[in-house]
Amino acid sequence: MTDGMRRQIVAANWKMNGSSELVQQLVPAVREAVSALDNGPQVVIMPPSLYLGEVKAQLADSSISIGVQNVAQWQSGAYTGEIAAAMAADAGCQYVLVGHSERRELFGETDEVVAAKVSRILASGLQAMVCVGETLEERDSGDAEAVVCRQLEGALAGVSADEAVNIVIAYEPVWAIGTGKTATAEDAQAMHQAIRDKLVGLGLPGNAMSVLYGGSVKPDNAAALFMKPDIDGGLIGGASLKAEDFIAICQAVSS
After folding, report:
1. Which residue is catalytic, options 100, 109, 134, 192?
2. Among this protein's residues, is 192 annotated catalytic?
3. Where along the chain do its domains lie?
4. pLDDT level of residue 105 (50, 70, 90 thresholds)
5. 129: which DSSP letter?
6. pTM for the model
7. Binding residue per annotation — 178?
8. Would you say residue 47 has pLDDT above 90?
9. Which of 53, 60, 108, 120 has a 20 to 30 Å separation from 142 between CA atoms?
10. Nearest-CA neighbor of 168 among 9, 47, 39, 22?
11. Annotated binding-site residue? 206
């Protein structure tokens, strides 16, 4: 279904949701279901940073990876409230989500800031899950591909072809996040193909890199999305907070 080198990945972005109780209920259920999958995807759970230790404890000796939802663009120092990429590595994370549209919109993160974070993430030995996506206005005016390509070019400035093995792209149309609207499988596939072409144009091994779709992925639309040749899995928001839904999405990838 996909290039032999491409990893299939399903990542759970809890955003600013969760509690110790949720960790204790959800994570063991996901762990058990994922361990039963044949040929299952790489599953990544990205809780709020305060719960990383608890999630990690629940996942000891499992194949599931953990990640953080953001890191700072600085190495260390007087940045109250921030978390460094090196700390995420030290805490046992494997992945960092970077450039999510909520960070871009609500916290003013530019492509330059995203690029600085990507370089910290790679320098810390972690994998960067780089989010790109257009707004409804940009899509309606026919600029969707141009916007996404510009974000890719900005975020990956300075990334070498060798480093690309530690980068996953997540395409999340902003108009589909939490709205219940989803890009059709055909629209998503077309953008994923454009993303690969752009990566290749940037001198990166675009056909060997995992590109995930995010934006209101649910059990009932997951299979149609994941069947497309250029969609290697999903970045899941709301549905990742419900064990049953998240497990069904993981199963859709493995089938």
Report:
1. 100
2. no
3. 9-254
4. very high
5. E
6. 0.96
7. yes
8. yes
9. 108
10. 9
11. no
